[in-house]
Amino acid sequence: MSQSTLQTAIKEELLARIKSGHYTEGEKFPTEYALCEEFDVSRTTVRGALNQLTTEGYLVRQQGRGTFVAGKKVRQTLSHTPNNYAAQLAVQGKRGQVSLIDLSVVSATKQLADVFTVDEQAPIQKIERIRHADGEPTQYEVSFIPWQIAPGITKDQAEHSLFQTLSQVHDVHVAKTTEALEIALADEKVSGLLDCPLGTPCFYIETVTEDASGRTIEYSRSYFRGDKTSFVIERSYS
């Protein structure tokens, strides 16, 4: 078996142990030497497996102390769910919080004009937010809502559910969302806002939200820390 195949096999075995609770959150992880002895492989192979688990957010290295099992990733549902961010985290035993970075009105660029089918220069509300789990930043989001759809969104509304604000305050109801997901590397701004190293792999999601008539009522771009977030996609077939 090649070194890369061995490394993958060891990484998958260690990951299975973490997910099953064999190694618990906050527990000090076995040393490279101990793992070399257990699996009868070279230190290079073990180190590669541990590096992968660290990059993917399952292990945390602490200078001078060793390697520890990281906390569980924030799990979010991409398919339909009536629960907002805080409610989704609450069932996972985590405290969710949304903090507003900026709330402003901008003129529609050509891209935004095309997304919302409005004139260029039409007023669009731009809402920049950070989502936290247990005080740690996990998501940076920029949302756009045309002024004509929900004029005068407030700071308090922006720090809670925008969909609830649209429904309860403006009688605008979400009927459909279309999400495009890809992997992106954190640039200087994203790494600063999410408190992660430059170049950290992130999930990048663009979401287009429509009402029952097919009108686009919200468009957003979101960056999720790849080492702190996982997604669940549920499908029902009749």
TrEMBL record:
Coiled coil: none annotated. SMART domains: HTH_GNTR, UTRA. Gene3D superfamilies: Chorismate lyase-like (3.40.1410.10), Winged helix-like DNA-binding domain superfamily/Winged helix DNA-binding domain (1.10.10.10). CDD domains: WHTH_GntR (cd07377). Keywords: DNA-binding, Transcription, Transcription regulation. GO terms for biological process: negative regulation of DNA-templated transcription. Residues 4-72 form the HTH gntR-type domain. One of its GO terms (molecular function) is DNA binding. This is GntR family transcriptional regulator.
